[in-house]
Structure formats: structure tokens, C-alpha cells
Amino acid sequence: MKNLLVLALGLLLSTAALAQSEGNFGKKINDKAAIAAAELPQKMGEKEALKAKVTGTVESVCQAKGCWMKVKLDNGESMRVTFKDYGFFVPKDIAGKTVVFEGQAQKKTTPVSELRHYAEDAGKSKEEIAQITSPKQELAFVADGVIVK
Length: 149
What we know:
Layout: H1 2-21, E1 23-26, E2 35-36, H2 40-44, E3 49-61, E4 68-72, E5 78-83, E6 98-110, H3 112-121, H4 126-130, E7 136-148
Parallel strand pairs: 2-3, 5-7
Antiparallel strand pairs: 1-7, 3-4, 3-6, 4-5, 6-7
């Protein structure tokens, strides 16, 4: 009887852990009409900001809280996706998974202090963080909602 209880508890916990790695986070969205992350830079053109629904593959996630993720673009670079008003986070173990996210894409200059903060969140060494010495022009995204597939 005791073994059965332990087994049931183990199954319940593993199911809960799996459920946290997949599903909806933030505003409930669907995956209809999402464009590939690789298409986003071209869609933006000269615009500074663009509302969009995007799908792509997660490259990495903030290992401190899941408060940002990087999604692969087609040019070997990645786009940082943050979450509106820190209203939600994503699981820290979703690297390699496909996601759909909706919100606002924007071209921005990320200051050195913020780049160093992100590097620290990603678990980079002090030496790697110290090598960040100039701001970076990049495409960023503030998501209202995320689906992890």
C-alpha cells in the first residue's frame, strides 16, 4: 500500500513537471497566422516597432527565473523575448522547443549594463561578462502571451 502511494505521488509530480514545460503562459493566444521568426526582420523593414505573432525555436532561457528567452533567427543571430510587465515567466528547461509568442517587436539599442545583466542571468562567467563593453543594436520582442509546444 505504501509503495502504491509513493508511485502515485511520483506520477503526479512528474505530470505536473511536464505540464509546466508545455502550454500557455501570459495572455491566452493561439498559433494561427504566426510568422516564422526568420521572417520578422524583413517584415519589420524600416519600422521601429511592429505588432506580430511569431513562431520559432528557443535557443536559451534565463536560468534565474525564466524571465526572458532567446529565439533563433535565420542569420545565426537570436532575438531576446521578454514578457510584458514581468507579468509571467516561462519554464527554464524549454531550450530547443518550438514556441509561439504574440506582442510587439522592436528595434532597440541595449545598453551595456542590461547586456551584462542578461549574461549574468544566462550563467556566463565573470570574464565573459567583463568583455561586454559596448551597447548592441538588436531586434527585441515584448510578448503578451507564449505557447510552448
